[in-house]
């Protein structure tokens, strides 16, 4: 048993260590295989063979799932799997639709790649499909032939906010295909689940919260409006609408208790013997499996169901297994089943949720609640009053169970949520005390019953769905005032809160120890808390420039002596999704910034000014400037050449515009920021005509060490004369990865290369940070320096992988 525990710990350690690998072990497969073989031959070191075997398994699994190629290429010049399709050309492919399709996600869905015109795969990989002008109504299970163009998944990369690339890999998606043309529908047959979904979708068409009802039954959140998602997040109940370990665990518990209660009356253990408890467990597992099927056996539901299956199997076999060993075994099985789950926050949330539920189910209070029902038949002399009292006690006990689950889940998940989301709803415990019983006992069961009833009695199903819809409406109405308590925390605040949380747990544990131990612990905790809240020393000579990765757009943060300037806000899209909520605000908050001294909007283009509304709602802004009038924001002052102000130790000067033109790009507010020795030039989207004017009028003021490339590196900007006048050491391109405009243009790159300028691209490297002192300029990027892990790198070994051109 001890050796098995050691082996489990070693393997789990290797799986977790992959979170910190700088790259997959592609070039070391043979070495790993040889090491495994040699260790297996040595009896004293045999157990250590788990380490190279796990590393070998993880590398091959990731390669197969993400690229369709079992063994990664050992040669960096040899393309592998799906990588052969990333060549900027159109390819004919055959795919099978996987995602449930609604009116809101017709242009964004997942599919299995069955064929391509150039390559056959060891495995049918899952790919993300984008169809910007869908011409055919698709359904899950159908097989279609398309013309598409491929690129690897390469999400925006910032130290805070949603890590999309990491999440995509955890969902088994490594590549994206943009559909250019639909050629043929090969098979129109849809899956049983897709047909079921369409009927439920039709039945709930006119209901206010149709999207939430479908999320609770089919795990499809495509019809939930963006603002409603934010509201749910702010209440701290997002976990209730994402079918995962919590739902599967609660549903398993409910079915388990229902079967136990039924069995105690119809099939008591005195008649069924050892099979009674196993029958109950199997019935509960079947119920949990049915719910997982409705959710499409998504990866979180797979993991939750697998956890329950392993745990139930161990107990059914009556193995002498401690809870610690059981948890290690469950985690090991989940990671072997899906090694990429280690990247998913939902694994740790699901594991925590199911672990708490299992502990409570088999702990003393819950065992007593469950076992009381099975013993009632032995008391033949019991009176009716005693029976009623027993039933009442069971009901009270069940609600106590829910309360234990609620408090336990909330407390245990607080640190995980804080680390994963950098935010907490301060009233989430209160909201969840209402929401969890309401949804787990009433709404979710009614939704599932209504969904099944859709097949048999549509009118009754509509009645049940309407009842659930009204309950959700009333719930939001009663808790609406609590949605303002959602709080983002800076990195420093997160560290303090985590330490406080751990100290509280420590103090609770030590409370039951000796008097001297308690006193020493209290003293130690007090000193540690004092150290936590001491202000950190920062250099007054240093200032910084952060180019935030907002995809195809722009947002630059400049800081000096606790003064802040934000230049542009990134884009906002018709769906409501915007770069302020997803990237900029989380990053500012992570730095502890709650107020902006200056907000500068270069010009009115949506990729520069799209997030104004969200920014002014979330931050105090002292001064607002723009290069041209903004239709919905009359409070912005007009940028004019010659204006200057101080930002900490820095001097900020507006170099352009002198007058407005019909060209929005050339109206961009051009800023030169300098500490008298090192300078930064922010240029917006100016084009060659405006560059020429600046060179002719202000050539002596253009010289700067760091240049933000005009217009994202468009071929209509960055003229040779302008580059020569600025004479930068660094040039930054803020552009989306493999964007449709092909920014930065090859000819622009050649111009900067010709003048020996070092180049860095946010689309390739993520956030770009310059830390500037009188002695040096230090440049760091998210992908290469701040988080240089394999899951932040591209799966394509193309020339684009280089983030700096030092020529």
TrEMBL record:
Localization in the cell: Cell membrane
Residue spans crossing the bilayer: 7-25, 45-71, 239-259, 279-299, 320-337, 343-364, 401-423, 429-453, 460-477, 497-513, 520-538
Domain of life of the native organism: Bacteria
Record keyword Nucleotide-binding present: no
Domain Metallo-beta-lactamase: 552-712
InterPro entries assigned to the protein according to its UniProt record, in alphabetical order: ComA-like_MBL (IPR035681), ComEC_N (IPR004477), Competence_ComEC/Rec2 (IPR004797), Competence_DNA_uptake (IPR052159), DUF4131 (IPR025405), Metallo-B-lactamas (IPR001279), RibonucZ/Hydroxyglut_hydro (IPR036866)
SUPFAM superfamilies cross-referenced by the UniProt entry: Metallo-hydrolase/oxidoreductase (SSF56281)
Membrane topology of this protein: Multi-pass membrane protein
Keywords: Cell membrane, Membrane, Transmembrane, Transmembrane helix
Signal peptide: none
Entry annotated with the keyword Metal-binding: no
Major subcellular location class: membrane
Record's protein name: DNA internalization-related competence protein ComEC/Rec2
Organism: Psychromonas marina
